[in-house]
Amino acid sequence: MWRGTAVKLHHTGHIMISSRRAFALVGRGVSYMHHVSGINDKKNVQAPFSMLHSQRLVTHQKLSRIRCPLRYESSTERSVTSSATDMESGEKPSETTKNYFTLLGIVPRFAVDDKELKSAYKTLMAGVHPDRFATKSEEERELKHTEASDITRAYGVIRDPLDRAVHLLELAGIPFDETSSGDLVGMEFLMQIMEIREDVEAASSDEDLQKLLDANKNRIVTTIGELQKSFEEPNFEEAVRQTACLRYWNRAEETVREKMSEIN
């Protein structure tokens, strides 16, 4: 018995099939019901093939407008914020967007050296430690408290690959819209997400879940590698797509870990 998605064949009623089979039928113009907009989403969304095709065209048109050349010196050694003025098209970064790379004093690029990042963070935090301003005015203490919060926030964003990618896109004038992730990754990818969800639901032991977790970690590593390549070229259309993929893989990992905690 196939488990998975309910598919409605035109003029033939309902049958139950797996997500792999559903994808094959979609290619022949079959309507289907799915709930892959997010790993943890429970809503069913009806998406006829014709609608999906239209969405792909719209997505392609949107992405074609944000493929703006952001030129770096020596790959990505030049500041993203400064390079924004070299864009031939696309939006400029918002004046209110904080450049966390500049705040920490490190080069704005996706490939970040962990030791350099930690060293910059510790040095800056030492400079705003409350003990150093215990005798200062309340206004100055509050100012240093705000600086410490900004430094901590910057460190948290840059050390996380997904947040770092989103931040780099923001600095390039390409804000990442999480609500459009499903459109960006395409149907085949969404079907893969559905299959992972089915496998997680069917898993009944830590061993099964660990295998799923290991496989997903490999996907995350691969996607991070593709992200680095996209930012170095730079190819922002691909960077946006890979960012959306990484968001799904992270959610998949969360789902596996949640199932592990339920079993234990």
Automatic annotation (TrEMBL):
InterPro entries: DnaJ_domain, HscB, HscB_C_sf, HscB_oligo_C, J_dom_sf. Residues 77-86 have a biased composition (Polar residues). Pfam families: DnaJ, HSCB_C. CDD domains: DnaJ (cd06257). PROSITE patterns: DNAJ_2. SMART domains: DnaJ. Residues 75-94 are annotated as: Disordered. One of its GO terms (molecular function) is ATPase activator activity. Residues 99-180 form the J domain. GO terms for biological process: [2Fe-2S] cluster assembly; protein complex oligomerization. Belongs to the HscB family. This is J domain-containing protein.
